[in-house]
Amino acid sequence: MKCPACGRALQTILVGDVSVEVCKGGCGGLWFDNYELRKFDEPHETAGEALLDVPRDEKIKVDHTRKRSCPKCDHVVMLRHFFNARRQVEIDECPRCAGVWLDYGELGTIRKTYTSQQDLEKAAGEYFTDVLGPDFAEEQGRGDLDTSHRITRVFRFLTPRYRFWH
What we know:
It is a single chain. The chain has a six-stranded antiparallel β-sheet with strand order 1-2-3-6-5-4, with no helix packed on it. The longest helix has 16 residues. It starts with 10 loop residues before the first strand and ends in an 8-residue tail after the last helix. The chain is an alpha+beta fold and 166 residues long. 28% of the residues lie in helices and 14% in strands. Helix 2 packs across helix 3. It has two domains: 103 residues, no CATH class; 42 residues, no CATH class.
């Protein structure tokens, strides 16, 4: 497979029980197959530490505005979206295979985003309040679980792979 950011050949490394493709000696990016990123995206997942500092060539400049093709699927352009509600990292995700590309340093930022489950829940609540308004927050405070489930289903329908909670 070729790196979607700089075009170099990706190398496969084994991290725990997962094979991850890395742009070693190139731009330092990481390719995760469908759902693999979930095994490395939180600070307590120690296997992810091996992916935080991939050897790279600092002379390689990556154009972050350019659309990227999936390294696994022929002729499929990846979708770019925020990884979580904090909107600190934009990831590239293949709409066909659900693989995820992270540029150098993005995994470290993702792993530092939430320090606890409470921090994660607070950020999700702030995001929904921002998007849906304070009335929604009041309904949540009253425990209207049915309303929150309906709204969550709408969001999942509109953006099926967006990770609100992670």
